[in-house]
Design a protein that fits this description.
379 residues; alpha/beta; Rossmann fold; Dihydrodipicolinate Reductase, domain 2; 2 domains; 12 helices; binds nicotinamide-adenine-dinucleotide
């Protein structure tokens, strides 16, 4: 297909965080254009956002149901829907899109609850349409390098993983003072039962499994509500069992005052280890038992094929969050194009999909159960 794929965005209205990032990232490689949207629950604000994005005013809809209905009947209708709303809408919007024969790129977490995720898994399987999940960090070239390094076996059997995702922005009760992003995230009805464990813990969990190739098999988690009056957890410490022989720790906190977006992964094998920091994403440290430490730089010609395949710029020209998002969009666009050409099973293994979505929701459910029991639970 030579034309650009047309995207319809749900969410991303005035003042939203991630919706506009999806637009920037999706359009970066020139393969996708924003054509339509239901940007807000208010029709007026949806139209205002559509005007801001410069789309045809007739395609800035008052509701996502109206968008699916109208777009699925247009000859030049949207090819896929992006879900960038609060979590409680992820399932109904995905169901509406897939039911109308439209592919889905959803932001994480896949749904608000684990039961919903199982339902969504069945809907995706039945529809047979591409479904992608934007675990953004999977799009960084050095995360791909780290993943390939683990898969190569050069680090030796993996024995230990330490992952932490620390933010400080919920250190005070900002949900009570008009912070839009905090308001829905601290409301169980709109967010789901997992607070920080869902909002950022799922990213840490996904990154761990994505890079190591190991599956979490057991978890012992402590969840806390540090800020008085908060209805969901804002801090989590968890012990992990990975595969049959590895163990790890996962820390996720949104009350780590002073931290901005400190996502750090360390993986230890028998022969060496790796360390990646999201706030310094263009460097990957690899330490060897029997050799000196290496710092691998994004864009270096010596990197593996997986990292180079998602590199846009020569070394020393930093790529970041939007480019990582755009990598996932490039892979998703290729999957949608392949699906339109009649191919099945089009999602590449590098792009998170419904399986990752269900595992992420299971992680939240298991962490909450472990906290309730005060003990280990099987995954
Ligand atoms: N991948 C990432 O790194 C990342 C980062 C931030 C947020 N997220 C996820 O993205 C989603 C949105 O988060 P956010 O921080 O942008 O929230 P936000 O509050 O900034 O934006 C949510 C948007 O959804 C709109 N909305 C609400 N109800 C709607 C409806 N019925 N129809 C259409 N639009 C509606 C709101 O008007 C708003 O524009 C969440 O699921 C969050 O977990 C992912």
């Amino acid at each position: 297909m030579s034309r650009k794929l047309r995207m319809g965005l749900v969410g991303g209205g005035p003042g939203a965080f991630i919706g506009p990032v999806h637009k920037m990232a999706a359009e970066l490689d020139g393969k996708i254009e924003l054509a339509a949207g239901a940007f807000s629950q208010s029709a007026e604000r949806s139209r205002a956002a559509g005007a801001g994005f410069g789309i045809d005013p007739a395609r800035a809809y008052g509701s996502y149901a109206e968008m699916m209905e109208t777009e699925s009947r247009r000859e030049d209708g949207i090819d896929f829907v992006v879900i960038a709303t609060p979590n409680h809408l992820h399932l109904p919007v995905a169901e509406a899109a897939l039911g109308a024969g439209i592919a889905v790129m959803s932001d994480k977490p896949a749904t608000a609850t684990y039961d919903e995720a199982l339902k969504l898994e069945a809907v995706v399987a039945k529809a047979g349409l591409p479904y992608g999940l934007t675990h953004t960090y999977a799009g960084y070239s050095l995360v791909r390098e780290a993943r390939a390094l683990c898969a190569s076996g050069k680090l030796g059997p993996i024995r230990k993983v330490a992952v932490e995702y620390l933010q400080g922005w919920l250190s005070r009760p900002v949900e009570a003072t008009g912070n839009k992003q905090a308001a829905w995230r601290s409301d169980p009805a709109l967010n789901g039962p997992g607070g920080s464990i869902g909002d950022i813990g799922t990213h840490a969990f996904h990154l761990t499994e994505y890079v190591t190739g190991l599956k979490v098999t057991g978890i012992n988690a402590t969840l806390r509500r540090v800020v008085p009056g908060r209805r969901l957890d804002d801090d989590c410490d968890a012990l992990l069992r990975l595969g049959s022989d590895a163990s790890g720790t996962l820390m996720a906190s949104q009350v780590a005052a002073g931290e901005r977006n400190r996502l750090v992964l360390r993986v230890y094998g028998e022969n060496g280890s790796l360390e990646w920091h999201q706030e310094d994403p263009n460097s990957l440290s690899v330490k060897w038992m029997d050799g000196p430490e290496e710092i691998r730089h994004a864009g270096g010609g010596y990197l593996g094929a997986d990292a180079l395949a998602v590199t846009r710029l020569p070394g020393g020209h930093p790529e970041g969050y939007i480019e990582a998002f755009a990598v996932l969009y490039r892979e998703f666009a290729e999957a949608v194009t392949a699906w339109k050409a009649g191919k099945a099973d089009v999602l590449p293994a590098t792009l998170p999909g419904i399986e990752a979505g269900v595992r992420g929701m299971r992680f939240i459910e298991r962490a909450i159960e472990s906290n309730r029991l005060g003990s280990w639970v099987e995954f």
